[in-house]
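Check these lines:
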Amino acid sequence: ALHRFQLISPLLQTGLDDAKRLQLRRTIADENHISVRTLYRYEKAFAEKQFSGLKPADREKHRSQNLPKNFAFLLEQAIQLRKEVPERSVAKIIYILEAEGLVAPGILKRSTLERHIYRAGYGQKQMQMYKEARNSSSKRFCKPHRMMLIQGDIKYGPKLPIGKHGAKVQTYLSSAIDDHSRYLLSSRFYDNQEESIIEDTFHQAISRYGAFDACYFDNGSQYIAKQIRFSLARLG
């Protein structure tokens, strides 16, 4: 359900006209090797039952038996090859892996490896986007209305004598700010930087100002923890 929500979340943005939404839907379908009709089905299910509507029907889950046992290692090597040369095609990556004796010829399928590389964030289009972003000048970005987007981050605070026998403990400031107004929705110091402080930050922000449409943060382990992503998806 979380994966399906992440697929359709760009389509849930307000302000998209029909033509733009149709184009975006086709792009998502092509990049994820699914049909446009499948996306329509996911959107309809979400509109009717929210996040719970995206849960798969009760049936025994199955994984492809064609993936080699060391596929995680092969994927890691494939991503490294893509990082070294962003223009390197998946077919070329497979050829190199086979030539180095890491996998027998014919085991890795291009479409399968391409899908997993894309999900990891290293598809060719994604790499091009990263390159263009690095080369472009910095521009001010701001949503047109409040609570359309909030931004979260953690910063180091002072060391305070709050430990056992007055020992100094490193503190961390976890904050959430509204992108449009730059209004601080929640900001507190904590004695750790675990996932729980992010949960508390979002809880404080939502309790005071209501649910937001989307949130933006880095790939810190606290922010991409499965429970955080699951909770945000449940909020839509």
Summary: Residues 2-54 form one domain. The beta strands are 150-160, 169-178, 184-190, 215-216. Residues 25 and 78 are 28 Å apart (CA to CA). The longest strand covers residues 150-160.
